[in-house]
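Morning!

As promised:
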Amino acid sequence: MMKIDKIVLDHGSGGKISHRLTADLMLPIFDNAILAQLNDGAIFDLAGMRLAFSTDSYTVDPIFFPGGNIGDLAINGTVNDIAMCGATPLYLSVGLIIEEGLPMSDLESILIEMGKAAKTAGVTVVTGDTKVVPRGAADRIFINTSGIGLIPEDVQIAGNQARPGDKIIISGSIADHGIVVLTQREGLTFDSAVVSDTAPLNHMVGRMLAGGKKVHVLRDPTRGGVGTALNEIALQSGVGLKIFEEKIPVKGPVAGMCELLGYDPLYLANEGKLLAFVSPEDAEAVLAAMRADKYGKEAVVIGEVVSDHAGQVFMQTRIGGTRIVDMLTGEQLPRIC
Amino acid sequence: MSIKYMDEYRDSEISRKLVEKIGNLSRNAIRLMEVCGTHTVAIFRSGIRSVLPETITLLSGPGCPVCVTDQKEIDAFIELARTKDVIITTFGDLMRVPGTFSSLQQERADGRDIRVVYSTFDALEVAKKNPEKKVVFLGIGFETTAPTIAAAILAAVQREIENFLVISAHKLVPPALEALVATANVAIDGFILPGHVSVIIGLKAYQPFFEKHRIPSVVTGFEPTDILQAILILVEQVEKKYPRLENAYQRAVTFDGNAKAWNMMQEVFETVDAGWRGLGVIPQSGLKIRERFRAHDAARVFDIQVHGTQDPRGCACGEILTGLKTPPECPLYKTRCSPTDPVGPCMVSSEGTCAAYYRYHAD
């Protein structure tokens, strides 16, 4: 067997190979109980408050795409990671790494979108840093955002909280962002109006949690997609999941493009969607709360947590068959024929 | 693109009725082989295996382009990637396939210029933009991809893009069927024949094979109802002992195939004996670039020396590709071999049988 002695792109795919890098290299070095939980953000107590703290770096290509740009993506991404801890996101930092030669107008457009996105999400960018590197040392612009948020007292949300009987809800159609970025990057034309779904989800989460509704897990299925996020939760909570293929919303043109290129929408990125694991008695109320929000109009139950096959995700297919849904391994690659 | 069209072929009601019919009709234990890798994946993804009666065993055949590519060819691709002033362009599936000592993915991490493209014409564009480099496209696949590669070579000639080259490791489906049956190691009661390949070569291409062996054979598409329909037809033929060559994919496949694509393929390529992983050398089963286009043939332009090629030790890819073994029967499956640490190509390619088992099959 060949040993991988260098970083390859698969290490950044968000799939199994990324997970192994985190587990084998990073967890032992930074060894601590908060990190070891591997939630979307760190959850910890400080001075009598429960906080969520998260960081994410954005290296999207192209930097401008239908539905957004790297700027609003970077704000929304960290806002969402904090919101997925059940927290109200408050303050963000922004770090820019810019390649020499980036047009000033591009930077301006990106920053303006970041400002708008922060305002929409109700967060304040309170600190930042800018570095410029020689041509070729970065690809136009990379952005890091970090943020903190406050977790209300009665909220207990984490990847290890799913329990048998929970309903699994998705807030809308999957794979929109992934397929848009991919097709833009490759210059493939889309004869329809599919745009990236990048959006802040914190206000919707606020509605979902209001009144003490029993939400156990929240996750935004970004890199690695819904398939990978579900597997992570099944492993973290030590439960089995069952989902129904015909319930999973995929827009027609997205499904068509996936078909053409041999991609599975279950593993493509979403930037404005969330998965919620909800106690069955509160499922209807949570769905109603989501559907009342701009970003959750198409929210739907796609499955449930079951007591057998712990750590695995099963899918009932359209034709009534059953198969497993595995975690993404590395980047999805287009097929040959 | 209209998805409504596909939805018809995914209709749960129609599928369930087909499954019921198959169940009612199937008496004898039979083994059907789906030859094409895209069928393998479609069968697993739609859960078809889990709804078929126990009498029906589905075997996966030698229809995953990456998987049947000979180890020596993989090593040659890697050697080419290491050549000075060469840009490799390839379909994504090949990136992770382990050669004897390295993979294209590793080579890219080592700084070689290797680019994943979606079509051969993208590769042609890369060549146009990099006139100081030689841009080599790794030509693998069956009759489905060969015409597009032929078209790219013809376009390169016409547009005088002299630095565009192809290394051809293309394979042909009908000779492989012949070899599969000739080895006679495995009894196959019926063939589910590939859809995309048949669009090009037409139903007629299978006629000599069918006339010789009289094994039930059905060409079909890739939606669950297409595949279930083909299985139903095959069960009927076997039960009634009335073998035929049938087309269950009439919305795409004709008797004569796509003459334009076929002619283009003939213009650029000639058939040669070719080595297949698992099947060995099959007469007249590969495509070589004709002498006329030698300037675009990387095999002629470069002196590619490959030494020490070895098939991955303990890997049962060869037996799996011919239906002699199923992945769980390979001692490496899920022990030393997984999509994260693949030993053989069948675990790497998205169309590989081992990868399909690993990803979709509940033990």
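Residues 9-151 of chain A form a domain with the 60s Ribosomal Protein L30; Chain: A; fold (CATH 3.30.1330.10).

Hope this helps with the figure draft.
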